[in-house]
Amino acid sequence: MNFTSFLAVSKMAPDDYVGFTFFVGCMAMMAASAFFFLSMNSFDKKWKTSILVSGLITFIAAVHYLYMRDYWGSNAYIDGLLSSDPDVLKEASPTFFRYVDWILTVPLMCVEFYLILKVAGAKKSLMWRMILFSVIMLVTGYVGEVIDRPNAWLWGLISGAAYFAIAYDIWLGSAKKLAVEAGGSVLKAHKALCWFVLVGWVIYPIGYMAGTPGWYEGIFGGLNLDVVYNIGDAINKIGFGLVIYSLATENSK
Ligand SMILES: *C/C=C(C)/C=C/C=C(C)/C=C/C1=C(C)CCCC1(C)C
Fold first, then answer.
1. Quick one: which H or E segment has residue 36?
2. How far is the CA of 226 from the centre of ligand 1 (A)?
3. 3-251 in CATH: which number?
4. Domain boundaries defined on the chain
5. In this predicted structure, what is the pLDDT of residue 172?
6. How far is the CA of 250 from the centre of ligand 1 (A)?
7. Which of 63, 99, 139, 212 is deepest in the core (most CB within 10 A)?
8. How far is the C-alpha of 187 from the C-alpha of 36, rounded, in Å?
9. Ligand 1 pocket check: which of 60, 204, 223 to mutate, most ligand atoms within 8 Å of Cβ?
10. What is the pLDDT of residues 138-172, one digit of tens each?
């Protein structure tokens, strides 16, 4: 793939709402990255790293969205027309780039929890435990979506258990204890990030159920996996970063 073909999406249909969310998602991630990187230097040293990580999360996503929107644009269209064949559209879904993006950005979100809790004495072991669970969550999700689709429900269940372990740690476990010890704006930000994980991350299993075979097909089958994932990413990556941004702002006065 050379650079010009990489940026040249041949044609986009006006009713291609999947392609639309790839383009808007890409632009939003780029804008958010510029925002985080450019604002970085106005913060105290101890917040700079957190803002830098927020920018890295959206930047990594921006690059993957650039690829994903191109992958969709060049596979969902046949002779310049948006295909209506469900098998063609399924093949045009950029699952590989999606999971490469997640395996890089979700652990970075775990790092963010650690960074804001460091003031309360958070240990690296907390960070590594969260990263381990997030990797289990994503690898099993990939197996269900790509390698062993007939058992997608089972892989989704294992993935869901790892997700639950993360949610438990931050809502009720050791991370919660540290946040309470820190109090003030750290506790406030921790709570906000916890809500992202509890409510914002639930968007992903919904997308997964919309796009894999299983008993749940009748419930979520009408949704498009990529549209759901794209909305989830915008909320979780940009929103998450903005919470860190406002925490840093409050503490750099
Ligand atoms: C920026 C990307 C983020 C925050 C991605 C988060 C992804 C998840 C929370 C995915 C979770 C899944 C389950 C809980 C079960 C089904 C399989 C997954 C991987 C979609």
1. helix 17-39
2. 13
3. 1.20.1070.10
4. 3-251
5. 97
6. 30
7. 212
8. 22
9. 204
10. 999 999 999 999 999 999 999 999 999 999 999 99
